[in-house]
Amino acid sequence: MENNIQESAFLLLLAIWRGIPAGYKSRYRATIWRQFEDDVRAAAYTSNLSRFYQKITGRLGVRIQPSDLERVQTILGCGKDREILRMIRDEAALLILQVRLENQHRRDEWLANQEQEEKIQQIPDEIPDEEFWASIT
Q: What is the DSSP letter of 69?
């Protein structure tokens, strides 16, 4: 049961993190992770998960990505408000670390895909045939 609560808390925080505007993250890049943890912990001092969500998204200017919207709605409506909020308050550092690791993993995957695309773009549209190679030797 606790793993389910922890996973729900993690997925909610991940969706919130992904919804923070890039400009905001860039402006506070030196302290953004500490600020995120502090803001999450402070907003979690309520008994209502929807109220937590409103506080944290308003404070950080979050716009949940469409791909995360259904998951967020499911978590907010799961009826485990107190358990999830307690997990967020008590384990904020761990949950934020998990979000940070997932964020780094996604970034690494994106960079690898970018490198692969660059390599593909360097391949000529037409590969010379044997006649071409014979003509230049």
A: H
Q: Is 136 exposed, middle or buried (0-12, 13-18, 19+ CB in 10 A)?
A: exposed
Residue type, 72: V
CB 84 within 8 A of CB 8: yes
Nearest to 88 by CA among 99, 104, 73: 99
d(CA 64, CA 69): 6
The values of phi and psi at residue 116, to 5°, are -65, -40
Tokens read off for 31: 């302290």
Q: Are 52 and 85 in contact (CB under 8 A)?
A: yes
Mean pLDDT for each consecutive 10-residue tract of the chain (137 residues)?
Answer: 86 97 93 96 95 96 96 96 97 97 89 73 63 65
**Burial (CB count <10 Å: 0-12, 13-18, 19+), residue 36:** buried
Candidates 2, 6, 4; CA nearest to 95 is 6
